[in-house]
Amino acid sequence: MKKRLVLFAALLTALTMFFSCAGAEKAAVNVAFLKGPTGMGAAKLMADADAGTTQNAYSFTLVGAADVVTGQLVSGELDMAALPTNAIAALYQKTEGGVQALAVNTLGVLYVLERGESVQALSDLDGKTILSSGQGSTAEAVLNYLLAAAGVTANVEYVSEHSEVVAKATAENSEYDVVLLPEPFVTMMGMQAPDFRVALNLTEEWNRQGAGLLPMGGIAVRREFAEENPEAVAAFLEEYAASVEWVNANAEEAATLIEQYDIMKAAVAKNAIPRANMVCLTGDAMRMVLENFYGALEGFNVKLIGGAAPGEDFYYGASGEGASVAVIGGADGPTAIYVAPTESGK
Predict the structure, then answer these.
(1) What are phi and psi of 155, to 5 degrees?
(2) In the predicted model, is pLDDT for residue 20 greater than 70?
């Protein structure tokens, strides 16, 4: 009898532990991504979430424009959202610190394309007309910063949409031979008009001017959510970084997933991935890159970042003690880089 009681107690303990583990709920995380490079990097994470293998229980929202999700992030409908890096800074100011930067997920995706061979350097843009979109945005700020640094005077004509740039430049008897576009529109342009070539990579030009990396896109997080769910945030960063690395290293397979999740057509995605500069910069690496970028924007149009540079509490996970290793995509596959800390350690 005593032996049976011992066995029964052991069985009861095992069953209790089993159901306790089985019943443990994953943290619910509501995330929004934009269609394009910011959504492309999350494709593997979305697939893993559907397979039930992620640490968190994710609910994904995919939208075409950033302004669709900013209100939802502020209201608490979303916990995290992929946004332009200047918009994250502006939300920090608008919410009085209620929104923080969690990661930089996209470096520069801006390229100058030319029909011809005359543009080999920024100086070759002098006197030329450039067709672009994004007036009043960071795209205009970046272009103007680089033109001024190179002492170049160019005539920039703006239209409202990237697709309009492509349409005007590829129209019969078009007068436009030089355009500025981001990925994936660079790839779309190349597919529609093979006589256009990538003449300048503005990320490389930005770096040549000593301005550092060019962080165009990032992940914003609600401070309240981050403070209440640090483990869920850590799990997201781990899983998102792994997703970005996988997408960069497996363009063909990734393109299939990207189309499956209605982010972009596979044919476009496959060719766009090497130039999409998808990354996952966090902590001190994120802070250093963003501080340099915001400093440049302050000198151009401080309204782009909400009227002032963000405070130290803006950078989630930044300690000032070092920097992180990040994965950056490229034509030859992902490359690991190290962003060194500043002399002050901040």
Answers:
(1) -95, 110
(2) no
